[in-house]
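Subgroup meeting minutes
Present: P.N., E.W., G.H.
Scribe: E.W.

1. P.N. recapped why we're keeping a running log of single-chain structure predictions: easier to compare across weeks, and new members can see raw inputs and outputs side by side.
2. G.H. added today's entry (285 aa).
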Amino acid sequence: MMNTNEFIQRENVRARELLNGESRALEMYQYLSGSPKVQSYLRTANRMAVSRLGYTDHGPVHAEVATWNALKVFNILEETFQPNVVAEGIGDIDDARLIVLASTYLHDIGMVVHRSEHPQASINLASPILDSKLLDIYDDPAKATDILSFILHGIYAHDDDTQCLTLEAGITKLGDGCDMTKGRTKVPFQKGKVDIHSVSALAINNVILERGPTKPLRITVAMDNPAGVFQVEAVLEKKISTSGLQDYIDIDVLVNGNRLVLSHVKRLFRVQMAEPSDGLSPTEK
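Output recorded in log:
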């Protein structure tokens, strides 16, 4: 297990570290991370989210962290589950990894249009970005189109209320939901966004993904203040509930290294969640 007291430096995370050489997934990552259009979309999405709306980071750093999380989850769950692209006879494990990578990396680019309905905007913007590269990778229009359809489903289904219908999409949603450390919300907080949502996010130092002793995936959320539990309930648990993987995940909460019983601690925050707030809502993650 990683050091639960460690404060993750989000800016230093690179999804490339989890990719093998000479793979189609790596080729797609190099294409997306090096694309001026993709990087511009991500920067603009972040201006929309942080500067205009006061939300959390939705830019290039979030794309890297969410993708790193998703690939980590993929590597863990690969031992237990067969990705849909494999089970349905369309592709192999490398194709599944490429799907997870591309859908997670591009899931928020639709924020350049608006927060409202941004998953739909994201798939509209992602399609032309991916079309030519997928044809280059697969040299087969039918296979490229099949892979694109998986990617677009993953992008669209990352929204909290949309049910994931493939393992790949569920992993994308988890990758997004697990980017919840304090670095993601520090800019809105510094600009005066002080409410239960921002205070909760600022309490979380690290999110650790690993194989669990009783379930395939254990998510450990390490924080220095129990206020971080609100973020777990309002954001992470909601994502998990529509991921299709909710029965296969355990969540551990550590406060300064001490394990808490999540169901007990959440009672502290039910009043705040029930009250109307002008602050950052769970859907703004």
